[in-house]
């Protein structure tokens, strides 16, 4: 009798569900940062806009990393519904405060999945997620440094102009290049 080939599935359904939830978070991060980038560009914060356009791309890349992982492990990665994205902000400082708050939520979500993988002995997914654990540490640090820049320079007078330049430098951008990466 011909052998039935079963799909090689190494993920439990529960882990697949959690990873799909994380896809939604990464997709939301990307949309959120894109919206912030656009707002910054309209307000003339060109360096912050470039920073955030790049960041939106990075978040999409994080989302795609999880897509590949789920599908390679025999699951089904689902395109997330993204709604309810904020389009205007009170100030540039508020943008970076919201980024920090958002990244802290993302870190918690990643840690919860890591916990789940550890307790269910899914060491493969546990190992896959280490990249995200490190990435979140870097992103939270970056958001905290950004807020320090506001405190150090101060927002009065030319302050915001200098803050915008320093925020770009924090992301490794050359302030002499005034084009945004919105293309
Ligand atoms: Fe995906 O790294 Fe932040 O959110």
TrEMBL record:
CDD domains: Nonheme_Ferritin. Belongs to the ferritin family. Prokaryotic subfamily. PROSITE patterns: FERRITIN_LIKE. InterPro entries: Ferritin, Ferritin-like, Ferritin-like_diiron, Ferritin-like_SF, Ferritin_DPS_dom, Ferritin_prok. Residues 9-154 form the Ferritin-like diiron domain. Its EC number is 1.16.3.2. The keyword Metal-binding applies. Pfam families: Ferritin (PF00210). This is Ferritin. GO terms for cellular component: cytoplasm. It comes from Marivirga atlantica. One of its GO terms (biological process) is iron ion transport. It catalyses: 4 Fe(2+) + O2 + 6 H2O = 4 iron(III) oxide-hydroxide + 12 H(+). Transmembrane segments: none annotated. Fe cation binds at residues 26, 59, 62, 103, 136. The keyword Nucleus does not apply. Gene3D superfamilies: 1.20.1260.10. It is found in: Cytoplasm.
